[in-house]
Amino acid sequence: MKNYINIVLLVLGLATFFCQELNAQIFQKGDIVAHVGIGLGSTYSFVGLGLPIGGGVEFGITDNIGVGADVGFVSSSGLTIFYIGPKGYYHFNELLNLDSEELDVYGGISILYRKFSVGESIFGVIGSGVYPGFHVGGRYYFSENLGAYAELGNSYGWLKVGVCLKL
């Protein structure tokens, strides 16, 4: 797990080095935003589950609507849960009349595939399958390309926090 945290810190450091302009833009048609983060609280509660990690990408199809995908996993003590699926976004800045060049507020839905890999010591695990997801969150951009995000939802973690990068 320490390696994943080091990778996130490395990405943040490199992005800060390469992103010098401080006049950030909110989400727009044509934007591509990648994110990586950690989850706080697994949506599939088991005592002793590890720290969820994941990431994804979003593509702007209009100034308010984006589509993308997320992937994540959590693993510990003979159980690994892998999540992957498409995700739809609606960006609320225009609707809420938020005139911010740094803050991007969004929400949306997803369809996630959850795959369980179970060791011999775990019994009674619900099977793998497809389920609906939801999310609501925000991104705060420190520069034109680099920001942080926080998101509530029912994917690999109830609360996800991390870094995002406009490509």
Properties at a glance:
single chain; 167 residues; mainly beta; Porin; 8-stranded antiparallel β-barrel
**Which blocks of ≥5 consecutive residues have pLDDT under 50?**
4-25
Q: Provide the succession of SSEs.
A: HEEEEEEEE
Largest sheet: 8 strands, antiparallel, barrel
Q: Based on DSSP secondary structure assignment, what is the total number of beta strands?
A: 8
Roughly what fraction of the amino acids lie in strands? over 45%
Structural class: mainly beta
CATH C-level class = Mainly Beta
State the separation between the terminal residues, measured CA to CA: 26 Å
Could you please say which CATH topology applies here?
A: Porin
Helix content: 10-25%
Morphology call: elongated
Topology:
Blueprint (H helix, E strand, L loop, with lengths): L1 H17 L13 E9 L12 E8 L4 E12 L2 E13 L11 E16 L10 E13 L4 E8 L5 E8 L1
Antiparallel strand pairs: 1-2, 1-8, 2-3, 3-4, 4-5, 5-6, 6-7, 7-8
